[in-house]
Amino acid sequence: MFKLLGRSAQQLFDYFTPCSMCDIGMKRHFGVCQSCWQQLPWLKQTIERSQQQIMVACHYQYPIDRIIQQFKYEQKLHHQRLLNGLLLQPRLPKVHAIVPMPISTDRLVERGFNQSLLLAQALSEHLNIPVWQPVQRLAQHSQKGLSRLERLENIEQQFVAAAPNQIRYRKVLIVDDVVTTGSSITALSQVLQQLGCQQVYSLCLAAAQHQEINSNAAADTTESPLL
Ligand SMILES: [Zn+2]
């Protein structure tokens, strides 16, 4: 009942407020107008990074790059509605649970929230399947000055299974915001398989080429280019 009321209040609000991107058009898709929606840098494909298949909604290009950065670093959480909508665009597999990409406690304290958890929670509500967080992430150190092999080992060591848990899911979907090399997803996926997951799918908002990650995001990511 409240959900229904909430939805019609949202519809009413949408009717009287313009597109959240251009401030002109009428809201049609997750708070943005038809024209802004069509002009997003769509990818809607499964790509391969670090021998991992990853479903991706968009290229990490304007305006999606700005929107994700504002969402993550400037706490502009109103962007979440559009970001939730993006994650629904690729054809999603049937899974038993959604696993948000974990962030370390340091990052959590610094940022105040885990952006992937917020996205996973919204997706979980939409698909009516649980969010599952069986893996912890240890301190995310800088990858600078490390060799390719050292970087891979560094990332693998960051992901550890949380305290033993009775719950086990066979098919899961990892949710992350931006994929660059895919090494975090690969490392998380390995731990999930050790925990008994038989099929691990991955879904990201956007895929970046290494050079597209700006200095702000580069400081955040542990996925430095593996050259
Ligand atoms: Zn618009």
UniProtKB/TrEMBL annotation:
<dbReference type="InterPro" id="IPR029057">
    <property type="entry name" value="PRTase-like"/>
</dbReference>
<feature type="domain" description="Phosphoribosyltransferase">
    <location>
        <begin position="116"/>
        <end position="219"/>
    </location>
</feature>
<dbReference type="InterPro" id="IPR051910">
    <property type="entry name" value="ComF/GntX_DNA_util-trans"/>
</dbReference>
<protein>
    <submittedName>
        <fullName>Amidophosphoribosyltransferase</fullName>
    </submittedName>
</protein>
<comment type="similarity">
    <text>Belongs to the ComF/GntX family.</text>
</comment>
<dbReference type="Pfam" id="PF00156">
    <property type="entry name" value="Pribosyltran"/>
</dbReference>
<dbReference type="InterPro" id="IPR000836">
    <property type="entry name" value="PRTase_dom"/>
</dbReference>
